[in-house]
Amino acid sequence: MGIEEYERSTKELKREIDTLNLKRAEILNEQSKVQLAEYRIDAVKRLMQDGTMLEEFDKTVFKSLVKKMKVINERELEIEFECGIKVREIVK
Fold first, then answer.
1. Backbone φ, ψ for residue 69 (5° rounding)
2. Residue 55: phi, psi to the nearest 5?
3. Which of 70, 72, 68 is nearest to 81 (CA)?
4. What is the pLDDT of residues 17-70, one digit of tens each?
């Protein structure tokens, strides 16, 4: 094996390593998202099993249930839940 072929092989292996490292980072990111979702689901389940009313805003519950909120106009909001349901609410 000549020097040129060795250098070409080395560059190719470095590219493959970089590609694998990127894939690994993507997998770890997805795994983190799944763990966060599981944590949120567990928090909502605990609240529902207790049957107690929340006395103040709970960020974990909110993030578990609400996918996005959209301001329609000065007095109207559209809330989209994680389950796909959309609701319009009038703000007084």
1. -125, 140
2. -95, -20
3. 68
4. 999 999 999 999 999 988 887 887 787 777 778 777 778 888 877 887 888 999
Q: Which amino acid is at 27?
A: I
- Which three-class secondary structure string do you get for the chain? CCHHHHHHHHHHHHHHHHHHHHHHHHHHHHHHHHHHHHHHHHHHHHHHHHCCCCCCCCHHHHHHHEEEEEEEECCEEEEEECCCCEEEEECC
What is the pTM assigned to this prediction? Answer: 0.52
Residue 39 token pair:
């944590």
Q: How many residues does the chain have?
A: 92
